[in-house]
Structure formats: structure tokens, C-alpha cells
């Protein structure tokens, strides 16, 4: 049987609150898939981590009177502890504030820009910070 290669990732939750059952469900399901593929003899890379950017996170840190990086560091520890408490088998825990992630994201951006895949443009939008989405007039109450 030929070994297959699998790349599994979860969403990277915002660290503006403690881990909750919804994320636990997602990561346990991803872990089950990773373990099954390993059991079949396949090579598996399984990533999870935390998204540590965004206006909500910055505002939460301000509310607590601490620097944003200090704020996200505390939550990253809480999310990292899920590995032991849920007996997870992920191979990489990625933080979007890590130097390696920042460098990779910047390189990706540069390549997309060089290919003409992204461009700068001004436009007006109604933005909901709480849900982190653009809103249309029909969605406003």
C-alpha cells in the first residue's frame, strides 16, 4: 500500500475568550481524522493554533489595561493546554504572532501581489466589529 500524505488544519480561533465546547468539538473531530489516517500508515501533518490579531482582541486588551501581546500570550497558554486535557495529537501549534508565521504571511502576500492577485482600492463599507463582517443595508436594523 502506498503511503499518502495528509494535511489537516482547524480554524484558528480568536483569543478574545476562553476555549469553548464548539472549538473543542472541531479539534477533537480533526484529531480523530488525523489518528485514523496515521493508523492506516499515512503521513499526517495536523495544525491548529490561535489567531491573535483583530480589533476585538486589541479592544479586550485595552479594557484590561495590558499590552495586546501580553493579552494574547495568556490565552494562547489556555488553548495550548487543550492538547493534554483533550489528549490531542496535533503536530504544530501555530500562533499568528509568531515570527515564523508573520514571515510566511508576508511572503505569501508579496507573491500574491506580484501575481496581480491583490490590489489596493478604496471603498466604503459598513463594518460590524463584534461579528467581524461587512454588512449590507438590508442586514441593518
UniProtKB/TrEMBL annotation:
<protein>
    <submittedName>
        <fullName>Methionine--tRNA ligase</fullName>
    </submittedName>
</protein>
<dbReference type="InterPro" id="IPR015413">
    <property type="entry name" value="Methionyl/Leucyl_tRNA_Synth"/>
</dbReference>
<dbReference type="GO" id="GO:0004825">
    <property type="term" value="F:methionine-tRNA ligase activity"/>
</dbReference>
<keyword id="KW-0030">Aminoacyl-tRNA synthetase</keyword>
<keyword id="KW-0547">Nucleotide-binding</keyword>
<keyword id="KW-0648">Protein biosynthesis</keyword>
<dbReference type="InterPro" id="IPR014729">
    <property type="entry name" value="Rossmann-like_a/b/a_fold"/>
</dbReference>
<keyword id="KW-0067">ATP-binding</keyword>
<feature type="domain" description="Methionyl/Leucyl tRNA synthetase">
    <location>
        <begin position="6"/>
        <end position="137"/>
    </location>
</feature>
<keyword id="KW-0436">Ligase</keyword>
<dbReference type="GO" id="GO:0006431">
    <property type="term" value="P:methionyl-tRNA aminoacylation"/>
</dbReference>
<dbReference type="Pfam" id="PF09334">
    <property type="entry name" value="tRNA-synt_1g"/>
</dbReference>
<dbReference type="GO" id="GO:0005524">
    <property type="term" value="F:ATP binding"/>
</dbReference>
<dbReference type="InterPro" id="IPR033911">
    <property type="entry name" value="MetRS_core"/>
</dbReference>
<dbReference type="InterPro" id="IPR023457">
    <property type="entry name" value="Met-tRNA_synth_2"/>
</dbReference>
